[in-house]
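Why does residue order matter? Because the sequence determines the fold. Keep that principle in mind as you read this record.
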Amino acid sequence: MQLQDGTGGATNAVSAITVNLATTSTGTYQFRATQTGAAVTSVTLPLGSSQVDFYYIDYQVGNPTFTVSATGPSDTALT
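Structure:
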């Protein structure tokens, strides 16, 4: 996930940001902060970074979507 400014360019976080993870999957799924780590519902974008990685595993056949959300300055976007 990347933090972007109002023009779509990457921008560094001025404070740590908790990023909430959600999916529309109706099956068994997991978000993970590391490839082999435990399931999580959020990850933290560290101070001074523009991106944070997470992993998504879904055992349900289909095409679910997932979303990320956080509270932050109005001129930034998470993609």
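The CA atoms of residues 63 and 72 lie 29 Å apart.
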